[in-house]
Amino acid sequence: MLIGKGADVAATDKLGFTPLHVAAANGQRDVVKELIDAGAEVSQENNWGAQPLHLAASSGTPEVCDLLLSTGGSVSATDLSGRTPLLQACQTGNYDTVALLGPKDMSAVNKPDCDQYVTPLHAAATHGHLPTVELLLRLGADPTARDVKGQTPLHSVAAAGNRRDKKRVLVARALCEAGADMEATDDEGRTAVDLAKSVRHTAFIAYAERGELPDATNEAPRPPAAEQDNPQNGAATDSVLEIAPAPPDGLITNGDAASARGRGTGRGRGAGTHLSYEGED
Fold first, then answer.
1. Which three-class secondary structure state does DSSP give residue 257?
2. Gap between the Cα atoms of 82 and 246, Å rounded
3. How confident is the model at residue 4, as a pLDDT?
């Protein structure tokens, strides 16, 4: 109705958000389509260089991402911190969005931001998104990639958990089976186990030291790294590198992603920081 009365679809607020940015961030596909049909610029950037596709990816709405891509949105677009839409999608762990974006730009699978050097795998692993982690590994994500602190995704998993954190232990196993090194040290000489001990991530420690998995998995212990065949030789990786099925409704796609609706991307301080614009200078 407002568009019919001459409302400016290119209007921006003080942070550079257009109506299309807002609609994309909130997953409003019908509104996004109406704005695009009225001439809204799909590649318009806000003050942090984020396009509507970045916000749609962060909100976990693959249907909006698909619409933006089909109308000129760039899957390779980066904001001022070097973040791609794929990195944003991995932050919230929306499997369907990652499955849409990842194959469209394979170069983005290992592309870090330019602030913390966080890769999509760091982001997904930090937040314990196992199906997304497995999908990224299938797409060629590097489990040994290092961020600005010299930390691998395995370090991120270890530091992000607490006590009986089951989901991150399963992520750690997937990373190890794909080639992550439990003995790798960061720039301060700390291994993943060192970080796990600093936050009392006891489930991770039990897995790293004894191959123990949380009781709920009903699986026999498997050694994390040293006692396995070298993944680079093709052994011990086949099961991990299968594309994981989409998680059941509500498990991931409707959980963490829903909490991110309405947020953009911004100057995160590391893999454990939500990549948000709101309220930043």
1. helix
2. 28
3. 57
